[in-house]
UniProtKB/TrEMBL annotation, chains A, B:
PROSITE patterns per the UniProt record, alphabetical: HTH_LACI_1, HTH_LACI_2
Lineage summary: Bacteria, Bacillati, Actinomycetota, Actinomycetes, Micrococcales
Molecular function GO labels: DNA-binding transcription factor activity; transcription cis-regulatory region binding
Assigned keywords, A-Z: DNA-binding, Transcription, Transcription regulation
InterPro entries, alphabetized: HTH_LacI (IPR000843), LacI/GalR-like_sensor (IPR046335), Lambda_DNA-bd_dom_sf (IPR010982), Peripla_BP_I (IPR028082)
Organism per entry: Pseudarthrobacter niigatensis
Name the record gives this protein: DNA-binding LacI/PurR family transcriptional regulator
A Pfam match: Peripla_BP_3
TM spans (from-to): none
DNA sequence: CTGAAAGCGCTTACAG
DNA sequence: CTGAAAGCGCTTACAG
C-alpha cells in the first residue's frame, strides 16, 4: 500500500494534524517540528492522496475546459496554453469535447464533470445564457469566446470588433473594394462571427463603402467548409477581390479553393484570416491574419477563474476581459 | 449539500448497500426493489460522487495521456480521438504535456498524475525503457509511438517501416532519384524517425539506389524546423528532386521554404509527408502523405489499456499492436 | 436477496 | 503551537 499521512505522523512522532499543518503551509509550526515532518515525508516518499483530500475538502485542483473539438487548431493551441497557465498555479485541466451539441454542453455544467473540477472554462457554441444560468450551479464558470455575452457571467475574449475592423481596414488600404466574408450569416450580429462581421461593416462604413450581403457566406469554421463557401460564391458569379475568412482555417480552405480554380492569391484575390495559427505562417502564400493575444487570454481566464474559486474576486457581476490583438501582414494580403 | 446515497436509501426505504447494488448493476436484486431505488434516484436527482467512489474503490475512471505538446496537430487529433474512444467506455482522459522534458515524462509515471488515473497512455520522447520500468509502478501503461519498443511494455503503433517504404516507392515510381529526408539523423534506426528512415532505405535498396546520408537532415518535428532543414540542404548545394518529411508539419515547412525560394513543387521537387493532417489536404499544392489508421490506433490503445485495467488481457509480456495505413497521393507528389 | 458496520486517507472544527 | 475525534460519500467484506 501507499504511504499515508499516518505513517508520516508515526515516523515523525507527531499527530496527524501536525502533518496536515505542514502539508498545508500552516504558519504557526515550531521549525523543529516542521523539519522532522519534512524529513519523514522525504524518507518515506510520501505523496498526498488527492482523492482523499478532494473528498474531505471539496476541492479537486482540477479545472474543466469545455470546447467543441480539441482537434481544431485554435482550440488545441488554447487548451495547451490554458494547461500550462493552470499548472503554474498547481491546477490541472480536464477537457470535455462537446462536438457543438447542446446536450454535451449542458451536460458539462453538472454531473461528474462538474464534480471533478473546481471551476469551468466554457466555450459554448449552441446553448444560450438562460439554459446555462439555470444549470450552472455555484461553482465558478468563466466564458471563453463570445457566444454568451451576459452580465451574469465572467467572460474573457479578444477585441473581435476592433480586430476585424483593423484587418478590413488593411484590405481596403490595399485597394480591395469587394471583400467577401466567409463564416457568418449576412444578418448575424452576436457571437464571435457576428462581432467580427460587425467589425468588417464598421470598417466598410468608415470607408463609405456600402455593405453587400451577397458577399457574406455562412459556413461552419473548418477548412472544407471554407473551401465550399468560396466555391459557392464563385459558382454564383459573385465578384470579389478579397476574402476575409472569419478564422484561419476558413481562410486557408478558401485560399485552397481559389488556387485550385486558378485564381491567383493575392494578385486576383487577397485572403486574410483570424487566429494567427502557425499553419498560416507556412501556407503558400503565407496568410495575413489577426494574432489574438493567446497568452493573455490563457493567463487572464485562468487568473479570473482561480480568483473566483478562492473568493478573491469581489465583483458580483460578471467581469469582462478583452485581450489585445496584432495585425500580421503576410503575403496573402500584403 | 448534494444528494447522497443515504438520501436515496431513505427515500426508497432500503439500505445503503442496496442502493450501491443498483448503482453497480449487481445482478441479484428483486426487480421491485430496483425500481424503487431507481425512482428515488430520479426523483432526488442523485448523482454519484466520483471522488468518494474513487477513494473507496481505488478506481478513478480516468486515463492519463502523456504527450509532448497538445498544440502539435497530430497530438491534438490523437487526443481528440482517444477521448472519444475512452468516453464510449465511461472513461475520461486527463492530458499531461511533457514538453519533451525528461523530468516531466518521468513525473507523469508517479505522483498525483498517476494517482488520478487508472492507466496511462504514454508517448515518451526522451526517457528510456529502463527509467520507465524503474518507475512505472503497478498501474497499466500502454506506449504510443515507437520511442520505446520493449517486450516489457504494451505498444500501439503504425506500420512505420512499411508505410515509409510505400511512400518512398511511390516517389521512386514517379521518377525521383534523389529523395531528401527531413527529420532524422542519417544514422538513426530506432524510434519513429529511425523506423521511417529505415523504410525509406529499404525502398531505396529495392530499387538498387545507394543511400546517400547527405540527403538526410535532422530536425525537430515542427514546421519552422522543417523549413530550416530544407534551407540548410539548399544552402549546402545538396541536389535533390524530392523531399520526404518524416511527418506532415515537417513536409509543410519544407514545402513552404522551397516555394519561397522559387523551387516549384512538384515540378522541380516533389514533397511528401506522414500523418494525413487535414491541413495537408488544403495546402497548395495538396500534400501527398501516409494516413495512419488513427481511429484504429485510438480504439486499440484504449481497448488494450482497459483490458489491462480490468485484468482481462492475459499476456504477461507486452502486446504490440500495429495499425494499418494508407498512401494518399495528392498534388505535391503525384 | 438485503442490512449494519468498517474504512479508504485526508481536513477541519474543537479543545487544550 | 499540537492532539484526539469526527466525517466527507462511497464500496466491500461479512452476516443473515
Amino acid at each position: 500500500m501507499a504511504v499515508t499521512m499516518n505513517d508520516v505522523a508515526r515516523a515523525a512522532g507527531v499527530s496527524l494534524k501536525t502533518v496536515s499543518n505542514v502539508l498545508n503551509d500552516y504558519e504557526f509550526i515550531r521549525p523543529a517540528t516542521k523539519q522532522r515532518v519534512q524529513d519523514a515525508i522525504a524518507e518515506l516518499g510520501y505523496e498526498a492522496n488527492l482523492t482523499a483530500r478532494s473528498l474531505r475538502s471539496g476541492k479537486t485542483s482540477m479545472l474543466g475546459l469545455v470546447l467543441s473539438d480539441l482537434s481544431a487548431p485554435y482550440y488545441a493551441e488554447l487548451a495547451s496554453r490554458l494547461m500550462k497557465a493552470a499548472a503554474r498555479h498547481g491546477y490541472r485541466v480536464l477537457v470535455e469535447q462537446s462536438d457543438a451539441e447542446a446536450a454535451a454542453e449542458l451536460g458539462a455544467l453538472h454531473g461528474t464533470f462538474r464534480q471533478l473540477t473546481d471551476g469551468l472554462l466554457f466555450t459554448p457554441l449552441v446553448v444560450d445564457a438562460e439554459a446555462i444560468a439555470a444549470r450552472a450551479g455555484r461553482k465558478p464558470l468563466v466564458m471563453l469566446g463570445e457566444h454568451i455575452v451576459d452580465p451574469r457571467f465572467d467572460l474573457v475574449t479578444v477585441k473581435n470588433r476592433e480586430a476585424a475592423a483593423a484587418l478590413t481596414g488593411h484590405l481596403l488600404a490595399g485597394g480591395r473594394r469587394r471583400i467577401a466574408v466567409i463564416g457568418a450569416d449576412p444578418g448575424e450580429s452576436a457571437g464571435t462571427g457576428g462581432l467580427r462581421l460587425d467589425g468588417y461593416r464598421t470598417a466598410l462604413a468608415a470607408a463609405v463603402i456600402p455593405y453587400d450581403p451577397a458577399l457574406v457566406a455562412p459556413a461552419q469554421w473548418r477548412r472544407d467548409t471554407g473551401a465550399a463557401a468560396v466555391a459557392g460564391l464563385l459558382d454564383k458569379g459573385v465578384e470579389f477581390d478579397a476574402v476575409f475568412g472569419l478564422n484561419d482555417v476558413l481562410a486557408l480552405g478558401a485560399m485552397h479553393e481559389l488556387q485550385v480554380r486558378g485564381v491567383k492569391v493575392p494578385q486576383d484575390v487577397a485572403v486574410a484570416g483570424f487566429d494567427d495559427l502557425d499553419e498560416g505562417r507556412f501556407a503558400s502564400p503565407s496568410l495575413t491574419t489577426i494574432a489574438p493575444g493567446m497568452d493573455e487570454i490563457a493567463e487572464r481566464s485562468i487568473g479570473l477563474l482561480l480568483d473566483r474559486i478562492a473568493g478573491r474576486e469581489p465583483s458580483v457581476q460578471g467581469v469582462h476581459v478583452e485581450a489585445g490583438f496584432e495585425l500580421k501582414i503576410r503575403e496573402s494580403a500584403p
